[in-house]
Amino acid sequence: MSHTHVLAAVSRLDKVLIGLGAALAGLLLALPLFGSPLIVDKLTLLMIYIILAVSWNLLAGFAGLVSVGQQAFIGLAGYFVLRLAEAGMAPFPALIAGAVVVLLVAWPLSWFVLRLKAAEFAVAMWVLAEAIRSVIMFDPLVQGETGRSLVTLNAIDADLRRTAIYLMAVASAILVLAVSYRLLRGRLGGESQAIRDDEEAAGSVGVSTMRVKRTIFLISALGCAIAGTLWLASAITYQPRAAFGINWSVFMLFMVLVGGLGSFLGPVLGALLLFALQEAFGDFGAWYLTGIGCVAMLFALYAPRGIIGLITDRLGHEPLSMRKELDVRSERRGR
User: Fold this and answer.
1) Alpha-carbon distance 225 to 181, whole Å?
2) Cα dihedral 302/304/308/311 (nearest 10)
3) Which terminus of the chain is more solvent-facing, meaning fewer CB atoms within 10 Å of its CB: N or C?
């Protein structure tokens, strides 16, 4: 008897959602032609949130690797961009190269942190982020908590810079979503979910658990690095405390848990909710963080599967579901 894990066929609703997503992507790419600078700046931040949410969901929602230290890659990406720009690289190529360098750093780190279990992994990632921040603060280029501006990028015309950063953010968000969709619908998606549910059982049926976890870890690290470079490009000034702030992990946790852990659309919906809450209550200063916490508590109590869970209950099935179903076929079937 053979066993395979398969995805259900793409439903009509899923095809409509994919079509709407493609149309929305086209609209977002054309936005600078008619949108105000304020709208462009705000949507750049939204794209960064979506990238972070999708990246963290890949790690925790599908591979079961809960991290509270992904800000390590956000901060490192900004630092490497500064270093590359200081070495003479043009600012926009430096944004791309900075994310790639983070991926190269994440590779050897994965050999150590992925050998840890559950809470150990989560704490180790946070400690790693703080350790890296402390080391970077001693670099004279960064000037401790004073920080440093990306001078070469600041020298570019403001409108051109804003448009270029926005288009990079939209393109990056589309790419992250497309890669996530493709990987999760393939074998890697089934293997990662098997590891999340029971790593020992997954290994016993032939899943290369370390290979799968490392692949997901590196993809997530690259996504956070891309978000980090985009954040630096939009903020211009690099400050270690902000770049390595624990608030990044808080935002990622909120977006994914409220949107729907382990779903494809959940992180996007969570990012939209976080963005809306910040826009509505951001003027209240730090108090809006209390509001975010209250919203998270309400979802934890009354909608533990997040927004996507509420939608699934209403529709009867999860939109764009990546969940695998066990297909058991007898070798004698058809005889």
Assistant:
1) 19
2) -40
3) C
H-state helical runs in 31-87 = 37-57, 71-86
Return d(Cα 318, Cα 300) in angstroms, integer. Answer: 19
Residue 32 CA to chain centroid, in angstroms?
24
The first and second tokens of residue 154, run together, are 């600041």
What is the pLDDT at residue 9?
Answer: 61
Which residues, in sequence order, are bridge partners of residue 149? 237
Q: Are 176 and 54 in contact (CB under 8 A)?
A: yes
Written as one letter, the residue type at 163 is T
Tally of CB atoms within 10 A around 22: 11
Task: Report pTM.
Answer: 0.92
According to the model, what pLDDT value does residue 325 have? Answer: 53
Residue 232, both tokens? 């630096």
Is 213 in contact with 62 (CB distance < 8 Å)? no
**What pLDDT is stored for residue 187 in this prediction?**
86
- DSSP alpha helix (H) spans, the chain: 12-30, 37-57, 71-86, 91-113, 118-137, 151-154, 158-185, 187-197, 199-204, 209-235, 240-243, 247-259, 266-281, 287-302, 306-315
> For residue 153, is it left (φ>0), alpha (ψ between -120 and 50) or beta?
alpha
> Residue 4, class by beta-carbon neighbours within 10 Å (0-12 exposed, 13-18 middle, 19+ buried)?
exposed
